[in-house]
Amino acid sequence: MLSLGVVNVYFLDTDEPGEGWALVDTGLPWHFSAIVREARRRYGNTAPTGIYLTHGHYDHAGSAAALAAYWSVPVFAHEAELPFLTGQCDYPPADPSSCGGWLSLASHFASTHGRDLRPYILPLTEGPQGWEPIPLPGHTLGQVGFWQESSRTLIAGDALMNLKVDKWLPRKGLSWPPPPFTTDWFAVRKSLERILALEPQTLYFGHGEPLTELAPGELAERTEWFAIARAGRYVGDPVRQASDGNPIVAPIPPDPTKRLTKALVLGALATSAYFLLKNKQNS
């Protein structure tokens, strides 16, 4: 695992020595250099067999195109993610009303644009050697995790996080996927049930530190209090996928806080710039 601030990427060795390695997720666009440096440290000039995405959000697929071009390797994602990764459509808009704290504020400005990873993107049919793709939809329509039976290890993507984001400062703690960008809470619950049925001993996340040496039933105990989000535009109207791959999104109610939030942020920036300039003139 390579932690890149609040997002993680994974370097997977295959079961057979000398048979190569694979990369799971690619962080944000400016993480390209850090990932390449870590890959060289681990594997020299050996390119991965492929890049595997848990899903296509900007913080997981941000460097995918650049890394695929650099290594000349394919990028794999679940079929339901392909419309968002081939330039066909954008992800559904964020829902700031689904939580409080800094993430709610940040979601006003975060990108939900799709990406165009052609010609590198391919539908996911199997995982890296020794790893099985496990559908874990809810956060996105086609999110997957990667499961290694021999070690009972699961890379869960954003099906869960070990990071709480509902306050003004992020803090460690097991929680649901990032609420503003999660579009089907009923599927989130079913994906959690699928994770619990696997009974992983090690659980890796897209955000937060891993959980290791989990005892049987421990994860179920730690998530038994989890409840479907009580507020938010996607709670009662989850996103569905049309036959052409585009997301079907219920009409979005007006967000009265959006303009106010942007005005407050711009006002704060303008005020800071004014005082900085005034202090500089006085000095």
TrEMBL record:
The keyword Nucleus does not apply. Residues 6-207 form the Metallo-beta-lactamase domain. The keyword Protein biosynthesis does not apply. It comes from the Bacteria. CDD domains: yflN-like_MBL-fold. InterPro entries: Metallo-B-lactamas, NDM-1-like, RibonucZ/Hydroxyglut_hydro. PANTHER family: METALLO-BETA-LACTAMASE DOMAIN-CONTAINING, METALLO-BETA-LACTAMASE DOMAIN-CONTAINING PROTEIN. This is Glyoxylase-like metal-dependent hydrolase (Beta-lactamase superfamily II).
